[in-house]
Sequence to fold (587 residues):
Amino acid sequence: MIRDPQSILWLNFAVGVVSGAGWYWYQQRNSSEPLKKSVLSLASKESESFRNGSASASTSSLYSNTENETSFQAALQSAVIDAASIKVDMGVENSCLPKENDVLLASSSKSHADNGQASVLSQVNDAFQLSTAKLHNLVRAFIAEYEKGLLAENHTLKMLPSFAKRPCGSETGTYIALDLGGTNLRVCEVQLEGNGQIRSSGQKFTVPESLKKGKGDDLFDFIADCVSQFINVRNLSKESKLHAGFSFSFSCRQTSLQDGYLLLWHKGYECDDVLNKNVVELVNEAFERKSVGVRVVALVNDAVATLLSSAYVNPECCIGVILGTGTNAAYVEDLDRIPKLKTHEHNASQTTPEIPYSPLRNVGVPPSPINPPTRTMVINTEWGAFDNRRVILPVTSYDYQLDRTSSSPGIQIFEKMVGGMFLGELCRLIFLDLVKAGELFNGIVPASLEVSCNFLTAYMSRIGRDHTDELMDTKLVLEGLLDIQKTTTLDRQIVKRVCALVGIRAARLAACAIAALVIKINKLSGCTVAVDGTLYEFYPHFRSHIRDALSELLGISADKISLVSSKDGSATGSAVAAAIAASLIPA
Ligand code: BGC
Fold:
């Protein structure tokens, strides 16, 4: 008989998770097919009606209280995870946008009101707002998906073992850190001084677009050239090779901390010959070709690196999040709760016999008082792929359109609703609809808005920071940078409103994924979440929208979740990984 309250709580939680996972599975297998079909057909009808500006009830009926959604919610309701004391308030709508916007909606919908039709702006407004109830449902679905991904390979959420363990903060040494992201390669020299102290300085190189779509060797040669330049300028060359950590912001199946096979490119990269290849081997071969005295000894995903970097200085940190061009998270998991690892270990020893260590021996650092000898491993969730089937995410016609025209249709749907690479484009698609409906720019489509990806997420940040009465900085963006002739104050208010809708939705979705992770690892009593990425760093109020949503979801427990900015964590964390790996390599 279990009497200890901690265990009872844990048992409740486990039952909740299992029943949540069961319901979600059940829904996907049974009810979700008709639901999905109806969502898809509504979405395609909606897409059509949005296109010709004749949509009326379709958007709102798609996203608020359709019969299907009600039954889906009811089913998920029964999987309530009591142990986490999640507040469920199905009735509360959280408008999350200021009241003056109501005036804006009223003025822009005047002509539509005359013929009894909702304006496109008000439909967009409805479709992009996420009520607290919707957030709760997403959290439950996230928890269920995290659990499924840990069970076996090939689930939508890959939950990839990283073979890295939380550092203890006493690792020392100087390492080269490489961080390849969507736009830049960062090369840093990182000194781990022990006692959680890190010193780092580095240089950023822009990856030429041509290399993102060419041959893998050219891309890796470019990386080798940048590293060569970096170590030469700083006089870092030594007789023995410098050890490097490689933070790679693409999903890789790792078989050890030193080996990772690329699963897929996105964010504009298409070097197909790299797929399924060991990225560490490729970069080390390029170093050989170019006679660069550096050897990569650890490969980590950027979310994993962000976690490692922060955990090095703060033992409370157990989640690392990327909110930048793309989005992802990593967290510390008990080895016992990763059933698929056993299969993984088996496969790894079969496919990579040259690896000198069994993967599980490659996990870890020596135990210390702040790092007790628990058996844990950092998991790379790859949460950007959440709900690729679009069963529960509030996907709008604009999201469908963006996905269809992207370089990777059908995948990374969550990332396409949250990642900085996509938010500006979503706004552009909405603007075009508003113009065609005669609600923006006097009904004349500006040439610059016809070019895809021409409305940058950086413009959204600028517009979000514009609090002047006449929105003068917004005017500069629209008229100066985008060459749109003579915008009115109302035009600019509408543009600002659309940006806010898209940005706030992204922050609230990210909050769901974070809340679900915190609940999953039973850390409502307190933990630190390290966040790196330009969206989090620069997008105005993004953090406070995440915080607000966390409070709606977790009540007072949200106050115990500390979100810390981990600037450049994705680079420095790869050096921490290199230190961990170096300690595992026999002298
Ligand atoms: C990739 C992840 C990465 C994230 C953030 C996603 O597109 O799949 O591996 O962590 O972007 O950079």
Remarks:
- The pocket of beta-D-glucopyranose is lined by residues 249-251, 266-267, 301-303, 322, 324, 326-328, 382, 384, 415 (CB under 6 Å).
